[in-house]
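Re: [help] complex structure
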Amino acid sequence: MTPGTARPGGRTARNTAAVFVATLDEIAVRPYDEISIESIATRAGVHKTTVYRRWRTKADLVSQALAAAAESLIEVPDTGTVDTDLRVLCRSVQAMLASPRGAATTRSVLAGAAASAEIRSVMAEFWATRLSAIAVIVDRAIARGEVPADTAPGPVMNAMAAPLYYRLLVTAEPLTPADADRAAAAALAAARAGVFAAE
Amino acid sequence: MTPGTARPGGRTARNTAAVFVATLDEIAVRPYDEISIESIATRAGVHKTTVYRRWRTKADLVSQALAAAAESLIEVPDTGTVDTDLRVLCRSVQAMLASPRGAATTRSVLAGAAASAEIRSVMAEFWATRLSAIAVIVDRAIARGEVPADTAPGPVMNAMAAPLYYRLLVTAEPLTPADADRAAAAALAAARAGVFAAE
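Output below.
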């Protein structure tokens, strides 16, 4: 077994979980450039070498902690229709962004991204990975004939998520389940109209 | 004449322009909480009392500088069709966000918003004002029968702008004129499908 590989229920898995929680806690409470592997290790109650052994850089660690949180918080629905899949996914994103912790973490990560090209590149990679996980919703919709066959998943997912992040980050308006439903419906209407055809 | 009222071409107008430029420069280069009326006055080459006489708080000044920049950078088009109006508006937003200064200012303001409830409230007010300026595009589209009569302007404008800010701030992807055209087309398709009906 490779050193540092997570065994479910084992010490490595427990340490990983503790380090990820500590990473997100650090992100939620202080600017990205004030966070260090050391501050995360201290918060997680593990030795810093335990963290360094597995993640060489803060960017690696933040990227993986975000990916793990996204996977556990935002399940990819498979309800049988694209309408419901998109609405359920959008509701999950909205619930995450509307929660105090979700809002604080998101604002904090993105403030970090504003100040650092490194964290922007972490974010870009994170979103590319997330996109490949949720693209399956569009693939299934195409297979069922619910959207045009040449619909590109990326723009659909961006169109769906963007209005929610925009309300949180830009217009600072409240974020409700009705906003989620509207974002999902708008993305689907545009997809059906052929706006998101692959180029 | 009220003290501090801008006379076009007069000393007050020149001072106002210099203070607004200095405010946006400060926003683009340092975190919001490190900016002060004093640092803006120094950069603008005016005495700080000149600034304080007209703007009581940093939030007032930032809000007005942003509004002035938005008005001068983003003209509200009136081309005769909603398709073109939305595409032109979206291209202006995209060009602003894709420029190094526009990107830096936007990131900086929004990083400030992440850290400060005050700047979030400035932003919310700024966006509400901007919305009322561009809502006329939707009003004209309704009058021409191009979108359903009960279309609410706010969601249309959010749907159009959101994917552009999302690419800049969240996914950190490049922002091209093609993205602008797609965002405009998606917002219009959803509007035509009745997704943005007023509640």
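Chain A touches chain B through 40 residues (CB under 8 Å).
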